[in-house]
Amino acid sequence: MKLTMSLAFSIITRAAARDVPRLLEVWESSVRATHTFLCEGAIESLIAHVKSELANLSPIHCLRSRTGEVYAFLGVGGPKIEMLFVHADHQGFGAGRLLTEFAIKVLRADSVDVSEHNESAVGFYRYLGFHRIGRSLHDSRGNPFPVLHMALPASYPAQVASLAPQVARARSVAGREGSSVLRTQDGSSKIPLPPP
Q1: What pLDDT shows up at residue 46?
Q2: Confidence of residue 157 (pLDDT cuts 50, 70, 90)
Q3: Average pLDDT over the chain, rounded to whole?
Q4: In degrees rounded to 5, what are phi and psi of residue 57?
Q5: What letter does residue 142 receive in the DSSP assignment?
Q6: pLDDT at residue 101 greater than cutoff 60
Q7: Rounded Cα gap, residues 142 and 62, in angstroms
Q8: Residue 123 to residue 127: CA distance in whole angstroms
Q9: For burial by CB atoms within 10 Å, which of 6, 9, 54, 141 has the most?
Q10: CA-CA distances (angstroms) from residue 81 to 34, 70, 116?
Q11: Helix, strand, or coil here: 192?
Q12: CA separation (Å) from 3 to 49, 98, 101, 144, 177?
């Protein structure tokens, strides 16, 4: 029997304050399984930051085992997926996909930032229809870990529209250089220029 999306979404619950220690365990398990580019010191240094994020981002939506233990969770801020983590023991069974579809269809999320070095996450979001719209050389904390900015195609024009001042400048430069892409100031990203 195939579950309908609304029935599948009904198993998603909101995390409570008492869940924060388990959310941190899920985060750490997920990061250790997928962020192999991080050294032990980098993971340890992130723990305090993640505790704060978990305490301040609300609501956090999660999937629980039959015993009520959280094994995957999602945080969305505005139209952006801010965090999605699945415990290593539960990866590959559809938890991430279910939470992402919930974020898109119910919470109206249409963008996400992904560590460029987390190739499985980049592939996962591409599989679900997200496209790269930009790249930053550093993560949100200023660390030298490149981040890919990804969005669903329907939101792509709005994402590009937010770059209007840069697009106008880039058009004048592109006309002189014969280019059809916008480069960020640091030269790390290319965004196709929309037609004038």
Answers
A1: 82
A2: low
A3: 78
A4: -85, 120
A5: S
A6: yes
A7: 28
A8: 6
A9: 54
A10: 17, 18, 16
A11: strand
A12: 37, 12, 14, 42, 54
Give strand pairing partners of 183: 190
Of 78 and 168, the structure prediction assigns the larger pLDDT to 78
Cα distance between residue 26 and residue 15, in whole Å: 13
Answer yes or no: is pLDDT of 152 > 60.
yes
Q: How many residues does the chain have?
A: 196
Read off the pLDDT of each residue in 85-96 and give the average, rounded to a whole number. Answer: 91
Residue with tokens 């952006």: 80
User: At 63, which helix (H) or strand (E)?
Assistant: strand 60-64
184 phi, psi to nearest 5 deg: -70, 165
The pLDDT value given to residue 126: 95
Of 67, 66, 73, nearest in space to 20 by CA? 73
- In this structure, are strands 111-115 and 80-86 parallel, antiparallel, or unpaired? parallel
Give the containing element (helix H, strand E) for 72: strand 70-77
Q: According to the model, what pLDDT value does residue 137 have?
A: 92
Contact by Cβ (8 Å): 77, 108: no
C-alpha distances in angstroms, 4 versus 8, 13, 112? Answer: 6, 17, 25
* Preceding peptide of 157 cis, ω within 30°: no
C-alpha 127: how far from chain center: 14
DSSP string for 77-97: ETTEEEEEEE-GGGTTSSHHH
